[in-house]
Amino acid sequence: MSLLAHWVNGASGADIPVSDRGFSFGDSLFETFRIHDGRALLWERHRARLERGLLALGIDCDRQRIADQLDQALHWLSHEGHDHSAARLTVSRGPAERGYRGGAGPATVVLQCYDASPWPPLPAPVQAILCETRLADQPLLAGLKHGNRLEQVLAGRELDAKGAQEGLLCDGQGNLVCALAANIFLIQGGRLFTPPIERCGVAGTVRGLLIDELAAAAGIGLEITRLRPADLANADELFLSNSLQGIRSVSACEGHSFTSTRWGDTLREHLYRACDSAS
Amino acid sequence: MSLLAHWVNGASGADIPVSDRGFSFGDSLFETFRIHDGRALLWERHRARLERGLLALGIDCDRQRIADQLDQALHWLSHEGHDHSAARLTVSRGPAERGYRGGAGPATVVLQCYDASPWPPLPAPVQAILCETRLADQPLLAGLKHGNRLEQVLAGRELDAKGAQEGLLCDGQGNLVCALAANIFLIQGGRLFTPPIERCGVAGTVRGLLIDELAAAAGIGLEITRLRPADLANADELFLSNSLQGIRSVSACEGHSFTSTRWGDTLREHLYRACDSAS
After folding, report:
1. What CATH number did the domain enclosing B110 receive?
2. What is the mean pLDDT of residues A170-197?
3. Whole-angstrom distance, CA of residue B74 vs CA of residue B100
4. Are residues A258 and A131 located together in one domain of the fold?
5. Cβ separation B100–A1 shorter than 8 A
6. What's the rounded Cα separation, in Å, for the pair B34 and A194?
């Protein structure tokens, strides 16, 4: 993905002050989403998660600034003829005095746009490993897409070192939580299972849509439940979900092969339809 | 503390690129230290902790750049006649492509200098509360002074909301770990106790000096052991250590009063002497 444009606080710009708490402490939130034909896909879900984060971290940011920044990018992309792109919206607490308790603000609003392909009709299944990197239990931050991502950085480095395409991550107790930048869904006996996101992990927007709407629309029961790596042995199918890549089936993980992509393919069609029809 | 000067990659500057992974993911390390009379106090300990962090996170940064950046600041401070200052050195993985696994580099080296008072001869004891904010167990990052500091941000907000001067933080199992930005030491029956920093918390440089040298020099036995909030009830004395404030006694915490500051005062004298005599 190549960068198309970026804005900082409404101005086309590439720099932020070094005193920004986003840089000092990762004191920020972000959303990554697709923009198709001038529309931010699943924006209402992204906006709602960002809102939860702003409240949880107590970041004071005029919501209109966020809406205006998104509009500015949408207009620019349409004007420049970029039909498909990916965007990262970041809201940090802003420039601050020294120290954790140093006064800060106003919030910094950043939008970065990248060139992207359309949704792939049938993406090739990926191979995954089980990462040794574990996610720490932190209920105060679980579910949020916040700017403290060193665990993902370490897991990404582990995947690179092992030459792995994708990785599944467990919490400290050995429960499956997610993939590097995606949620996980396992199919067994015609039912869909996904882990709770209560103590770590990010509550993905596509995950939310699958739980709230897509599973029912496709006629498959869904259960949010603890999953262990051992459950992979009995699974018929495994797939990953996120905002940029949609739904990707997993072909193999830790010696277990998954030949079926039936439910991943079905739910992907529902996802594309839902994204086409609603915001 | 007011800002005196800042440098980004050797140039006097206030901005970093918005694509810097320090801003995107808190993918960085930092050191906060005192500079007295042209000398960075306890620098060898700060340098060693930074080195551990660079290796743990796999951040590729020419060590000479770090040494040169520090020298540049030390010369400038001496030339401008700033005898006492505080500095934050930050090393991030640098500007990068999108995503956790996006290629990055070269590393960004930032140095920020602030005006500071000399060591206080006898700082007033502080009152502390026990924070509700807990620190997550993450052995991969424990001990390091990395750029993922949302837990400290949340704890700082908790202290502000409660009008508290200082706070003690526990891990998820309820073991005492540290204060907001300091390590903790408890004295009971003429012995010094401090918690292990193995699963969370920052391994402070003054803590390291206390363990390695100062306790023995002052003639007090020291034990690294698990501490619970209940242990405060039996403690004769409690003090906090960090690089900027040195050693501060705690006068009260959660209904327990500590009238003695004997060992805090004694060890502070040893700290000042050690800082005066060595790097």
Report:
1. 3.30.470.10
2. 98
3. 35
4. yes
5. no
6. 49
